[in-house]
Amino acid sequence: QVQLQESGPGLLKPSQTLSLTCTVFDVSITTDYYYWNWIRQPPGKEMQWMGAISASGNTYYNPSLKSRSSISRDTSRNQFTLQLRSVTPEDTAVYYCTIGLRASIDYVHRGHGTQVTVSS
Prior knowledge:
Blueprint: E1 3-7, E2 11-12, E3 18-25, E4 35-41, E5 48-54, E6 59-61, E7 69-74, E8 79-84, E9 93-100, E10 109-110, E11 114-118
Parallel strand pairs: 2-11
Antiparallel strand pairs: 1-3, 3-8, 4-5, 4-9, 5-6, 7-8, 9-10, 9-11
């Protein structure tokens, strides 16, 4: 079964850049037809799709976050990474990496999630 593991800082200050890495086990991130997504859930709010990178390396972003987001990958480490610039307290959320068949909030598997808090 595919396993995904998020890693990154748990606490940031406003205006800093969040960098999260997802390490994938048991399937290559270059496997055809798969999309590797980032989603997040702020406290008391619905899950939000942030963006994705495809098996071929194409990237897709939520328009509301596109100006601050970058998704990249390291195929040698079987990892993909989210960078979110100029964070604010509104970016406080549990962040998940997922595998799906589309660049969307829907997924087949997801990681356990990592809490990110933005506070001065």
